[in-house]
């Protein structure tokens, strides 16, 4: 690229930036000295921003060349390197997650973030089965999260069942609702499936909101029992029959947090283990085949309905587990926690991480949820930062961080398959 | 070799073959199409077509564009539900199966595999994975429908080894063994065609239906394809194919069925069909018919 071209390119970028910032930054309404609204003009800032864009674009094109800005899904040289590093990255992340509570300097706040991140990793992995492997766009995943949470809360409230009994029940109930929703809607494809799942998510929330006799409506359910350590409750009082008393240690509020951390860690690992195992087996391959070409699947004798239903039910089940965990961690739930934005965040994690990639989803959850908490100090600017980050990833890596697919089986060496060949599914 | 208890109904249906006595061993039929009619609204794409494909033979369906070949094919393989008539599969030593009553995925399980005119592989999966997906039904049963395998029960690894072995056999039969770990979407066109046939064969069908397998192949690839199809026939699978490449059709088919405007106009040995005035008229557009000649 000649310097003249580079300057022209940068000028276009600056013009686009001007178009964006002229209204957003250039004009601002403020409260004037007399108490009325006045229009403040900030052309200096606009000029500064356009200048930054111009200089940045010029620097990128001259230093890295225009090629560096092309979107790519194919495994390039650096993805191969990343993949080799990824083989180490996944165990390294796992090891860090395992010893996190023991790392000095990790306090209650950090562990709480860890629990939150792991919950979203688990939800991401659960949704990855439905969206990433089976290629069914589900915009109402939070419904199963809500069903799991309310299952535990209501079973504990009305029948006094413990967390460990309710956890599988919550999963089963969520899977049951997944199948119930799946039967009528899985014949729909693409956009229609997305709309119906979106509606399902809203229906569940609205029912929870309005069925006041059962769910206490918008006031939510409080006093949800905390989990016990194999029958030993965590109590600040200590003494006989509590966790601290049994092990003869000083009672501390961090015991429960650490325990909760390991519970969600184990649940997330279970999700990952089941997914990874199923991917290497006929069911998982059938899901991926379904995402690639539904008609060919039918011609090979695969029952499309039941295969889709298993994906839906399994994804819902893990959502239900996560929901039950959420209820016991918060000790309070209300329909507020299960709005559409939750579905959107989980879906964003899956899409940014790379459909079907377990490591990618984990990293995306870590960055999105963890980053969101860490940058709390930025106030409303963090939305801008995250919006920008998402745009950058989608421009440069349209198929997510890990856009490649690893074959489930190989005669020789397993080679990553470029994202441009892998289907996205049309529902 | 012919079982003594061959159903006499075959003769009564008027589906007797006009072949010479020396081919009697192959006379048993594998597929029976009786009075098949398919209408789309006011359009009758296939009208009262009856024929039978014999076991262990290659039956070709030919006809000008728009003659209803692909519609017929989609009825046989369960992609369309016929408006009228019957399609029956007669597997050796088994009761006939009414294909026209089965849901789509059951037809493959009954023993009918197909390929597509516009190739439908799983492009993001490797050639080997494509062939393993084809063995889904068998493998799924071995995993205890998904649950056993997650828990690590021992029956699955053996079943998978056998499945990989079968896949390897078909990969080498289709000359794709060195491309086994490449994504199907990255294979050259001819290789994709062969892989699709290999995938269909991995379902271990009694009848293999091929929709224009030679479309887009160069003469050398067509020859290879013809050899492959004869090899498949040699292994005891019957074939039904739609084809435009008359070279391939005349060389390998044992029997040719000709459709024109949804009606059956000829059903005979390749040599006889070539000389049939009605067939020539259909292809060359003699009389009132103005179909484009092609072939």
From TrEMBL, chain A:
* Pfam families (alphabetical): BPD_transp_2, DUF3382
Which residue range or ranges hold the High-affinity branched-chain amino acid transport system permease LivHM N-terminal domain?
Answer: 6-99
Q: Locate the transmembrane regions by residue number.
A: 6-25, 46-65, 85-103, 115-137, 157-180, 192-209, 259-276, 309-328, 340-369, 381-398
UniProt-listed InterPro entries: ABC_transp_permease (IPR001851), LivHM_N (IPR021807), LivM-like (IPR043428)
Q: What does the record say about its membrane topology? A: Multi-pass membrane protein
Q: Which GO terms describe its cellular component?
A: plasma membrane
Q: Give the protein name, as stated in the record.
A: High-affinity branched-chain amino acid ABC transporter permease LivM
Native organism: Dankookia rubra
Q: Highest lineage ranks of the organism?
A: Bacteria, Pseudomonadati, Pseudomonadota, Alphaproteobacteria, Acetobacterales
């Amino acid at each position: 690229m000649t310097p003249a071209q580079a300057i022209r390119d940068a000028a276009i970028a600056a013009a686009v930036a001007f178009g964006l910032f002229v209204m957003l930054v250039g004009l601002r309404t403020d409260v004037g000295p007399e108490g009325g609204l006045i229009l403040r003009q900030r052309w200096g800032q606009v000029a500064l921003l356009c200048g930054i864009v111009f200089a940045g674009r010029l620097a990128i094109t001259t230093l890295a060349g225009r090629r560096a800005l092309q979107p790519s899904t194919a495994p390039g040289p650096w993805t191969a390197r990343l993949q080799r590093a990824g083989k180490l990255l996944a165990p390294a992340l796992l090891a860090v997650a395992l010893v996190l509570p023991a790392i000095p300097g990790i306090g209650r706040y950090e562990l709480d973030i860890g629990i939150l991140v792991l919950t979203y990793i688990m939800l991401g992995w659960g949704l990855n089965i439905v969206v990433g492997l089976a290629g069914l766009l589900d915009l109402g995943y939070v419904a199963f999260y809500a069903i799991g949470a309310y299952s535990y809360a209501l079973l504990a409230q009305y029948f006094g069942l413990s967390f460990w009994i309710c956890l599988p029940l919550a999963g089963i109930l969520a899977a049951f609702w997944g199948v119930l929703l799946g039967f009528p809607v899985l014949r729909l494809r693409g956009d229609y499936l997305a709309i119906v799942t979106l509606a399902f998510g809203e229906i569940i929330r609205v029912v929870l909101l309005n069925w006041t006799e059962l769910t206490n409506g918008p006031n939510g359910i409080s006093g949800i029992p905390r989990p016990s350590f194999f029958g030993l409750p965590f109590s600040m009082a200590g003494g006989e029959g509590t966790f601290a008393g049994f092990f003869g240690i000083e009672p501390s509020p961090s015991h429960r947090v650490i325990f909760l951390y390991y519970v969600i860690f184990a649940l997330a690992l279970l999700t990952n283990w089941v997914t990874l195992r199923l991917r290497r087996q006929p069911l998982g391959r059938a899901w991926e085949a379904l995402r690639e070409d539904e008609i060919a699947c039918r011609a090979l004798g695969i029952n499309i309905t039941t295969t889709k239903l298993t994906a839906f039910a399994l994804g819902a089940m893990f959502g239900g587990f996560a929901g039950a965990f959420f209820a016991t961690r918060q000790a309070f739930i209300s329909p507020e926690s299960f709005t559409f934005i939750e579905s959107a965040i989980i879906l964003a994690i899956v899409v940014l991480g790379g459909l079907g990639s377990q490591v990618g989803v984990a990293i995306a959850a870590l960055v999105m949820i963890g980053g969101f908490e860490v940058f709390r100090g930025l106030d409303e600017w963090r939305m801008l930062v995250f919006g920008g980050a998402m745009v950058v990833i989608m421009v440069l890596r349209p198929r997510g961080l890990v856009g490649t697919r690893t074959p489930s089986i190989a005669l020789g060496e397993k080679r990553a398959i470029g994202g441009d060949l892998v289907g996205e599914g049309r529902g | 070799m012919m079982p003594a208890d061959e159903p006499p109904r075959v003769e009564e249906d008027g589906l007797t073959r006009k072949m010479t006595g020396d081919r009697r061993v192959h006379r048993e039929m594998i597929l029976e199409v009786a009075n098949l009619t398919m209408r789309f609204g006011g359009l009758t794409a296939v009208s009262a077509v009856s024929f039978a494909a014999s076991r262990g033979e290659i039956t070709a369906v030919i006809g000008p564009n728009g003659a209803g070949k692909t519609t017929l094919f989609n009825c046989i393989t369960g992609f369309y539900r016929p408006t009228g008539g019957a399609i029956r599969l007669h597997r050796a030593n088994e009761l006939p199966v009414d294909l026209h009553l089965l849901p789509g995925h059951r037809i493959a399980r009954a023993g009918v595999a197909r390929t597509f005119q516009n190739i439908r592989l799983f492009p993001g999966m490797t050639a080997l994975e494509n062939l393993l997906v084809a063995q889904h039904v068998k493998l799924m049963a071995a995993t205890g429908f998904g649950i056993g395998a997650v828990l690590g029960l021992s029956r699955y690894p053996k079943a998978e080894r056998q499945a990989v072995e079968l896949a390897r056999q078909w990969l080498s039969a289709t000359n794709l063994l060195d491309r086994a770990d490449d994504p199907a979407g990255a294979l050259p066109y001819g290789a994709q065609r062969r892989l699709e046939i290999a995938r269909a064969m991995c379902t271990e069908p009694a009848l293999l239906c091929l929709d224009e397998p030679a479309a887009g192949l160069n003469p050398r690839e067509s020859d290879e394809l013809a050899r492959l199809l004869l090899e498949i026939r040699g292994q005891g699978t019957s074939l039904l194919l739609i084809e435009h490449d008359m070279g391939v059709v005349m060389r390998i088919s044992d029997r040719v069925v000709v459709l024109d405007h949804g009606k059956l106009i000829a059903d005979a040995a390749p040599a006889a069909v070539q000389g049939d005035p009605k067939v020539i008229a259909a292809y060359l557009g003699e009389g009132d018919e103005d179909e484009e000649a092609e072939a």
